[in-house]
Design a protein that fits this description.
By secondary structure, the chain is mainly α. The protein contains three helices and no strands.
Length: 80
């Protein structure tokens, strides 16, 4: 079985544009869901005020407190 396939350039361009449109839709939906959630908006405003007023601590401090390596990353799935 061949390791590569040939796709017509026009079809490939349509595929790329569809991906861009889906990405735009995802961002718009995410913005809508955030704006439609008053509890989340309140929490984001509080977090922003705390950040601006200096009530936050650097991530490195938290990693040291939890004995995590500086390069430790949370296990999260990348969006598809």
């Amino acid at each position: 079985m061949p390791e590569t396939i040939q796709v017509p350039a026009g079809l490939f361009k349509k595929f790329l544009r569809a991906g861009e449109v889906l990405s735009e839709l995802h961002e718009a939906l995410e913005d809508y869901l955030i704006s439609a959630n008053p509890t989340l908006l309140r929490e984001l405003r509080v977090a922003r005020r705390e950040h601006v007023s200096g009530k936050t601590h650097p991530l490195g401090d938290l990693r040291r407190e939890l004995n995590l390596s500086p390069s430790a990353r949370a296990s999260t799935r990348e969006p598809k």
